[in-house]
């Protein structure tokens, strides 16, 4: 789904005052019924992550952490089964999984002889049954499963979706009988920063030569696209020549402005591929 900047801004504006919950996503779908659920979820997640980055520092002051921890302790004393941490995260407008991390770190600092390592914290967040306090383990679990933008569960889902679309792209390339090298093959040859697929024989798409294809299982907004250009796409262009980026959940139309310079954007696999010999229907 390709959106104009104005259409994207209208959706983003609707997200300013809503919490990052599945209920909010359902309301967003009702407000924009012509947009796919996947596109709205991707925009929803990206906009919320921007918000968290802007407000991250205020939640990590020693005063804020101590205040959250004392409120957690007071809450579970009153009712340990209630979603104390989840409600606290929603109240202060912070991601539930990140709130769970803060409180878990503070708890372990108080109850363990040595400060907890990052790997220990990550392991406990992935499997809350490892947390040496049953009430806190349940509170952390509630935060993890109710967070639709952050946390180990979301990370696993994003990784699986990304892999699924890379497999889809591979199958489409094979279906079109296009020879390619994938990321693993390229790294075996010594390349460090590589696109998902290098075409061994370049093709043309909409009059533009394509040497490589990158799969992105997300929506291409200004922030993410400019970061990808800087960190990935221009590096690919310098090393391999012009290429194609597929944003499977759409992108802002105005971002497709580097075609003449060698980076083409699409929201699906192109159907009008031209090889050296013939056009593929």
TrEMBL record:
Highest taxon, organism lineage? Eukaryota
Its keywords, alphabetically, are: Cytoplasm, Nucleus
One GO CC term on file = nucleus
The answer to keyword Cytoplasm applying to this record is yes
Major place of residence: cytoplasm
Record bears the keyword Zinc = no
Gene Ontology biological process: erythrocyte differentiation
Q: Give the location in the cell.
A: Cytoplasm; Nucleus
Note the PANTHER family from the entry: CDAN1-INTERACTING NUCLEASE 1 (PTHR31661:SF1), SIMILAR TO CDNA SEQUENCE BC052040 (PTHR31661)
Under which name does UniProt file this protein? Answer: CDAN1-interacting nuclease 1
Q: Which gene encodes it?
A: CDIN1
């Amino acid at each position: 789904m390709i959106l104009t900047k104005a259409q994207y801004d209208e959706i983003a504006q609707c997200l300013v005052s809503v919490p990052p919950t599945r209920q909010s996503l359902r309301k967003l779908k009702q407000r924009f019924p012509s947009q796919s659920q996947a596109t709205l979820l991707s925009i929803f997640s990206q906009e919320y992550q921007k918000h968290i980055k802007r407000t991250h520092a205020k939640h990590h002051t020693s005063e804020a952490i101590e205040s959250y921890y004392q409120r957690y302790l007071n809450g579970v004393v009153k009712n340990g089964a209630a979603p104390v941490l989840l409600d606290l995260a929603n109240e202060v407008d912070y991601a539930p999984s990140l709130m769970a991390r803060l409180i878990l770190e503070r708890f372990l600092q108080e109850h363990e002889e040595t400060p907890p390592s990052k790997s220990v914290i990550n392991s406990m967040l992935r499997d809350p049954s490892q947390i040496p306090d049953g009430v806190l383990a349940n509170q952390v679990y509630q935060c993890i499963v109710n967070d639709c933008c952050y946390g180990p569960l979301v990370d696993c889902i994003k990784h699986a979706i990304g892999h699924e679309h890379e497999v889809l792209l591979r199958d489409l390339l094979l279906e079109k009988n296009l020879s390619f090298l994938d990321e693993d093959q390229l790294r075996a040859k010594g390349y460090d920063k590589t696109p998902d697929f290098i075409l061994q024989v370049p093709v043309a798409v909409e009059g533009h030569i394509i040497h490589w294809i990158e799969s992105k299982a997300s929506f291409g907004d200004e922030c993410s696209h400019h970061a990808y250009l800087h960190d990935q796409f221009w590096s690919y262009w310098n090393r391999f020549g012009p290429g194609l980026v597929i944003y499977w959940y759409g992108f802002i139309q105005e971002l497709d402005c580097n075609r003449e310079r060698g980076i083409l954007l699409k929201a699906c696999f192109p159907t009008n591929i031209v090889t050296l010999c013939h056009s593929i229907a």
